[in-house]
Amino acid sequence: MSHTAHIPSHRKPRRSASKLAVRAGVAGGVLSTLAMAGTASASPAEPVAETTLEMPVLNLDLAAEVSSAVTTAAENTRSAAVEGELNAQEESARTGAAAEAKQAKEAAQKKADEEKKAKEEADRKAEAERASRAAARTSLQSTSGSGSGSGSGSTSQQGVGTVTAPATGSAAAIVNFARAQVGKAYVMGGTGPSSFDCSGLVQAAYRQAGISLPRMSQAQSSSGTSVSLSALQPGDILYWGSRGSAYHVAIYVGGGKFVGAQNPSTGIVERSLSYDKPTGAVRVL
Fold it and tell me: Phi, psi (5° rounding) for residue 145?
């Protein structure tokens, strides 16, 4: 082995034929380009042609359509405004008519209520006058009967029907008060003085005699002692239903009649026992 074998060679590598051909081609192209450029610069300059842009022309038919659309839109807007105004006027008219009708109805109802109230007041005054005259007759007849020695069980006339009043006059006070309320209104829960329900009337009538009764008809039908319907006396409490659970009460006023607050349609009335026969009766006096 040579002693210089390990030293790398400093010779330049040989270029291959292909690489040389490529370089020659590139050089040739560059020279051709330069030659063409020189020739072009030597030739006289040609004038540059001007380019004119044509603007679109608006079609007359399209313009007419646009104008028609604008006119239609304006007309629709005006029509909508007119319709809205008409609707508002109609609504205002309806509201006004409804208000006038309501006022007329309220005025008519008020007039009817006033007429009813006036009639009820007139009926109450007439009934009070009748009761007053009846009480005066009773007092006169009782005094006359006592002077003639007829005893405390005298018979006297109480308006309609015969009433046998005890010497204490408690039954007469109860009956007179009950009859004075005839014609007044029936109102559920009413205890007077302008309206009553059935037990409210009985309670108020007995209060005139200084007797306190329970408020409800069930308890009133359990007061005192039971009596037969064939042995009734003025002032007895009549009841409908069973004793202790009665649903209606009234006051027997004599002569086969009673006074009671019947219902809202009739109010306080005086009726014959045959009109609505009671179930039983109790005596508290």
Answer: -65, -40
Chain segment 240-280, per-residue pLDDT in tens: 999 999 999 999 999 999 999 999 999 999 999 999 999 99
Phi, psi of 54, deg, nearest 5: -90, 125
Which CATH number covers residue 146?
3.90.1720.10
Is 71 among the domain residues?
Answer: no
Q: pLDDT tens digit string along 99-116?
A: 888 888 888 888 888 887
Residues in the chain, overall count: 285
In this structure, the strands spanning 195-196 and 185-186 are: parallel
- Cβ atoms of residues 182 and 128 within 8 Å: no
CA angle 231, 236, 275 (to 5 degrees): 80
Compute the Cα dihedral for 269, 273, 278, 280 and give only its sign: positive
pTM over 0.85: no
Q: Which domain holds residue 263?
A: 138-283
Of 144, 182, 134, 156, which Cα lies nearest the Cα of 255? 156
Residues 6+ away with beta carbon under 8 Å from 188: 197, 264
User: 């319709």: which residue's tokens?
Assistant: 83
CA separation for the pair 285, 283 (Å, rounded): 6
